[in-house]
Amino acid sequence: MHDGVPMATLIDVLKPWHARVVFVGGWAHRLHRLHPSASVPRYQPVVTRDVDVVLDPAMRLQGDIARTLQAAGFSKRLVGEHRPPVSHFQVGDNDAGFYVEFLSPLRGSALQRDGTENATESIAGVTTRRLRHLEVLLCAPWEIALAPTNDLPIAAPARLLVVNPVSFIVQRLLIHNLRPDDKKAQDLLYIHDTIELFGTSLAMLHALWSGAVRPALRSTERATAIARCDTIFCATTDTIRNAVRKVAADRQLSPNELRLRTSIGLEEIFRSRSAPP
Q1: For the segment 105-137, what is each residue's pLDDT rounded down to a tens digit?
Q2: Model confidence over 208-226: pLDDT tens digits?
Q3: How confident is the model over 186-205, as pLDDT tens digits?
């Protein structure tokens, strides 16, 4: 795996918190390949230099994650103008280095009483970026068993909590309209690749949707996610073309193939679409 050494260090460092934090984002998608139900394709996964980890303040995390990361060689950078600013922990060059960012769900108002944005919070020594629609990423996470390998040279076997693939897809659908164009294209490829990765296990993903993810969503979120399955993939758009041309240029994949495969896969996962939201 690209950046396997710093990722292995991160996994080792976070071991005291493995049962209480959830890996999400691009690295979670790559870790999905290690799940027993995955049918790993020949092409390489989308590469990302950052790792997103969700912290749930309700878990009352103990210890100081920031101090532990810095002791392992990660440098702390404060990002943004919020108070307190978001913490990034990085290894390598500022422009091309590997870094981890911590996130937490934004519940309630987006503004504090003084009118400033309710954009960050301090948890276990780090400052998280608070975002909408993160609760779904904490729903029914998968436990992925890791063993030391050349690609991911962790110090000892580990078990990580990783966002389940249905929650991963749903969250990408929910935030679609909030994303810049390049991220929209990347997200569509992530959705396509997740469906392809678990193409022989779509019945399992449907059961996960029906039994765990769907009941955990608000009615408006359920309606939005299901509606976007249709609106995003109803035609071959520039965003779909960009997903293929700019992000998946090394594959034999056409824009229309991406659209059709993804649409069919989403239909299988959310095949109770006609049910009331």
Answers
A1: 987 655 555 556 668 999 999 999 999 999 999
A2: 999 999 999 999 999 999 9
A3: 999 999 999 999 999 999 99
Q: Classify the C-alpha dihedral 221-169-90-143 as positive or negative.
A: positive
Q: Pick the closest to residue 24 from 216, 145, 208, 167 (CA basis).
A: 167
From first CA to last CA, the distance across the chain in angstroms is: 40
Q: Which residues of 48-80 are buried (b: 16+ CB within 10 A; e: fewer)?
A: bbebbbbbbeeeebeeebbebbeeeebeeeeee
Cα distance between residue 3 and residue 7, in whole Å:
6
Within 13 Å of residue 181, how many CA atoms lie on the same side as its CB? 7
Q: Specify which residues 51 forms β-bridges with.
A: 100
